[in-house]
Fold this protein.
Amino acid sequence: MNAVKNNPYRTLGVFGNSTEKELQKQIATIKRFAEVGKSKSFDYDFPFFGDVVRSIDRVQEAASKIEQAKNKVHYALFWFLNNGHIDEAALNNLKEGHIEKAAEIWEKTLKDTQVTPKNFTSVSNLSTLQLGIVTKNGSFDPKKFTASIELKGKLILSEVFNNFIATVIGEGLTINRDIILKDFADEVIQLVKPYLNKTKGINSSQLINAFNSFPTEIKQYVSGKFVDRPISYIESQIDKSKQYRDDNPGDAEEYGEELFENTKEDLTFLKKVLGANNVQYQMIVNKLANEILQCSIDFFNYHNEEGEYDPFDDALKLVNYANEICPTGQVRNRVDESLSTLEKMRFQDAYQIINFLNQIFMAFDEVERENSTLESRLSGRRVVINEDKIMSVARPLMDNQVIKKIATSEIEDLIDDFYNSLYKLITKISYSNKDFFEKKKKFFIDNLPITNRIKAKFEKEKFERQLREAEKELKNIQATIFLKKELDAANIEMNSIKQWEFLRSQSERERQINEQQAKINQILKKAEQEKSTKLKTQQDKITSLKQKLKDF
């Protein structure tokens, strides 16, 4: 990892809190070796971080990177400090390759991970170690990475960070903490780039969430590195859609769908990175939903006025797209209103049927009241409804496709209103026309989902009726004599055989009787088997019906 592996302090073979004198001495030593074509190694190179390149150019570059005080502090945050016997003991373990032992030594100085004047270098060193080994096993460890960043954040944001600065560059110098935080964030982003959004790597949201403990402006600064492009792209797509829609509202459905599809991936990314409740995320969601909704409205209005094309389904699809991305506030209200309006228009033909049924029912009611008055009874005059006229309207109006649409709508109020209106009219209409409405009711119920309570009621009643019939049939089977004709014929023949005949011997008579009795027994056995089979089939049917009723 660049910030650790290629850290200028590591290249120069010194710690982050080395003095200027120590730095210059190391630079001179490395250059002497380099001039004769040799590479100098040091005790604290820590080979498990990778090879150290110490060419003259690399050394010069490393030295220039830490010339300024600000840069010294910055790179010290990504390397080790040796500030006492605890650090020395841990670093010596690292020198021997005992990574876990070194980490354990530094961890012991942390009490509830609070940063104090006594443990601030342990906090920094432990964090650097975690950061340096997140790819030790060949794959990125997001959990270890997050722990490292959080620990480093606690150090930078702590009251004793000035102690860290003083240890690195000496007393009397101050550095703007906001600059340090931004530089640190930039370095971390560069550090994870080779592993970002890769298999066995780290995704953008994990990287951003690693900065959760940092000030809000820093997290926004980090997230901005990733969200600015998708937000800018979504906004450009919204502007493009608006321009096309204004120029050609008849094709607004196409522009709205294209807008939804083109921005779906970026919106999902923003939600994952920023979170659904993030203000910036909600703002872009509302802008996007508002434009998709406007495409639906303009498209519907254009074609509704033209009258050559039914725009309902395509307009509703766009409103559902806008609803799917979960807008808030006024945009949420606009979407809900549009859904409600389109739903009413979608079932306009259904409400027309319901209104017709109710009007006819009320007409029958009114006629009954008029015919029940004293004046009507005395005069003998009765008002009669012209049912032929009713049927001339009902037959084309009550189309099966519309009835099926109501049954499968899953809108309980609509389903109940239609059923109740139809049921009430059936109680009033004459017998000659009742069959038409009964067939419509059956068709309606057949198309209801099994979970609907009206359907369930009728299914239950149907099973109860079938059960009563099945139990009645069981009793009939129990009382039935199977193969009765064959048995009666065999018994008549037996009676004939038993009669005495002059030319027949006693032994012949007995033989014939035995043979006939065998036939009768065979018929009885066959009859018993048939009856047993019928009884079992009927009992199984009853058991099945009882189970169906139990399910209700």
Residues 506-551 form the longest helix (46 residues). The CA atoms of residues 308 and 413 lie 31 Å apart. Residues 348-449 form one domain.
